[in-house]
Amino acid sequence: MSVALVLVSHSARLAEGTRDLAEQVAQGAVPIRAVGGAEDGSLGTNAFAILEAIESLDTAGGVLLLVDLGSAVLSAETALEQLAPEKRERVRLADAPFVEGAVAAAVEASVGSELEAVLATAEAARGQGKLG
């Protein structure tokens, strides 16, 4: 079972667009959920929506969370605290750029890499988008 991705953004549109891009490069081989925006459609994050996404994708391969901005980290950490310990062991929160990390992670996961390799690839994407 492949590593799954949960993409958390303050913007539902950004989360969904990043998911679309990641799904395209992974060619359907990676389960990906986009979680973005507040319940009322405004900008924000929702720890319960993140928790639901993680639980819906909980696989033997694990789940990698990618987040866009500071408070999304807090929401993701809150969601992780709500997981049972045996599930929490299979989830990682990446310190990676949101879009570049998601694309890199999707490619790595699509070739069957394990969770720690997918995490490392996402985090290595930092600085890859620099010009010049």
Give the arrangement of secondary structure elements.
Elements: E1 4-9, H1 12-26, E2 32-36, H2 47-57, E3 63-67, H3 70-82, H4 85-88, E4 91-93, H5 98-110, H6 115-124
Describe this structure in words.
- There is one protein chain.
- The chain is of the alpha/beta class.
- It has a single domain, classed as Phosphotransferase system, mannose-type IIA component (Rossmann fold).
- 50% of the residues lie in helices and 14% in strands.
- The protein is built from six helices and four strands; from the N terminus they run E-H-E-H-E-H-H-E-H-H.
- It has a four-stranded parallel β-sheet with strand order 2-1-3-4, sandwiched between helices.
- Helix 1 runs parallel beside helix 5 and helix 2 (47-57) crosses helix 3 (70-82).
- The longest helix has 15 residues, at 12-26.
- The radius of gyration is 13 Å and the shape is globular.
- The model has no long low-confidence stretch (mean pLDDT 92).
